[in-house]
Specification:
By secondary structure, this protein is α+β, with helices and mostly antiparallel strands. Helices cover about 60% and strands about 15% of the residues. It has 2 domains: about 150 residues, no CATH class; about 160 residues, 2-Layer Sandwich (Heat Shock Protein 90), CATH 3.30.565.10. The strands form 3 sheets. A 5-stranded mixed sheet has the order 4-6-7-9-8, covered by helices on one side. It has a two-stranded antiparallel ribbon with strand order 1-2.
Length: about 350
């Protein structure tokens, strides 16, 4: 339980007992031989609430939460608690009779009944009262159990979220690995020098994904560097067949972001870019900018004429799911087609 919740719970209990004492001090009570008129009732009321509190908190904070570990069965322990506090309170009340010099009044009220009968009757009366306080203690039990269940559900939700995010992130690595190996394979025979440099860049990118992206969030500067490295790798692979234009910030503030969030979008653009004979007709534009705490990312690629791309591919579904999990109500993703271009715009509030 957090410190704030503990403070709130303490204040609630203080207010509760303040109300009980206010009622006891401001109403007229006659509980022979004690009475509010003579001021003798107040001391017995304080003692009585002390024993009421014992029953209330003993069950709520100790007996019920540890009922399965008690050496004596729970219900037997409850009975002993109620009877024990009830008759100890009755004995204390009897001792207060002598302390407050009320013996004559007690004898007058008893009408010849033995003093022990007064103690017994008082104990029976207290038993019913303490039973009521025992029942009342379950309001505290309910509050604690409810809070505990909320914490368990929250922990389960967080574990589920982590597992789902790890699964989504794991989907990126095999896809990226396959694409990288495939690219190097086709360059080895025709362009061995380019294949070597491509393999080095691919190795750096893979190292980044395997070792630097284990945290839930990484510095935005690292992710931008990864985007640039990915683009450089694709420039080598595509050569003059595709015109790539980029606009990435050189420096960024100390913002963090979930790693590999843009990788599926980059993969999607380079996978489905048009394949016209004229390289300048095949274009990919990538832009990322920051405005205060908002990140704006846009990537577009030309597509072949008479070709319609689905907006629900695996990579895009992956991005949608991760955004929904990581940035609920803090992102906007739009996907559109216009003038033979496939356009993805992503806006994320980083704070």
């Amino acid at each position: 339980m957090s410190t704030l919740n503990k403070i709130v719970l303490l204040l609630v209990n203080i207010c509760f007992w303040a109300i009980i004492l206010f009622i006891g001090f401001n109403f007229t009570w006659l509980s022979p031989p004690f009475s509010t008129a003579e001021g003798t009732y107040y001391l017995t009321m304080l003692w009585g609430n002390f024993f009421n509190a014992i029953v209330l908190y003993a069950n709520a904070l100790w007996l019920y939460p540890h009922r399965k570990r008690l050496k004596i069965p729970y219900w037997l322990t409850v009975v002993l608690l109620i009877l024990g506090t009830a008759f100890v309170e009755a004995i204390v009340d009897y001792q207060l009779v002598f302390y407050l010099d009320l013996v004559d009044k007690l004898n007058a009220n008893l009408g010849g009944i033995p003093n022990w009968a007064y103690v017994f009757a008082n104990g029976v009366q207290n038993t019913f009262i303490h039973t009521g306080w025992y029942i009342l203690s379950f309001t505290i039990v309910f509050l604690f159990e409810s809070r505990k269940n909320q914490q368990i559900q929250k922990a389960l939700k967080e574990e589920k979220l982590k597992a789902e995010l790890q699964f989504l992130r794991a989907q990126i690595n095999p896809h990226f690995l396959f694409n990288g190996i495939n690219s190097v394979y086709f360059l080895i025979d025709d362009k061995p020098d380019i294949a070597k440099s491509t393999l080095l860049k691919f190795s750096d990118l893979l190292r980044y994904q395997l070792y630097e992206c284990q945290d839930d969030a990484i510095p935005l500067a690292k992710e931008i560097a990864h985007i640039q490295a990915y683009i450089d790798l694709e420039r080598i692979r595509k050569g003059d067949d595709v015109t790539i234009q980029t606009s990435l910030p050189q420096t960024v503030n100390t913002f963090s972001i979930s790693p590999l969030l843009f990788t599926p979008l980059l993969e999607n653009a380079f996978k489905y870019v048009s394949n016209e004979d004229e390289g300048s007709s095949n274009r990919i534009n990538i832009a990322l900018k920051l405005e205060e705490a908002q990140l704006f990312f846009e990537i577009s690629n030309t597509i072949d004429k008479n070709t319609t791309l689905t907006k629900g591919g695996i990579g895009l579904k992956n991005v949608r799911k991760r955004l929904a999990l990581l940035y609920p109500k803090k992102h906007q993703l739009t996907i559109s087609e216009a003038n033979n271009c496939f356009i993805v715009k992503l806006n994320i509030i980083l704070k």
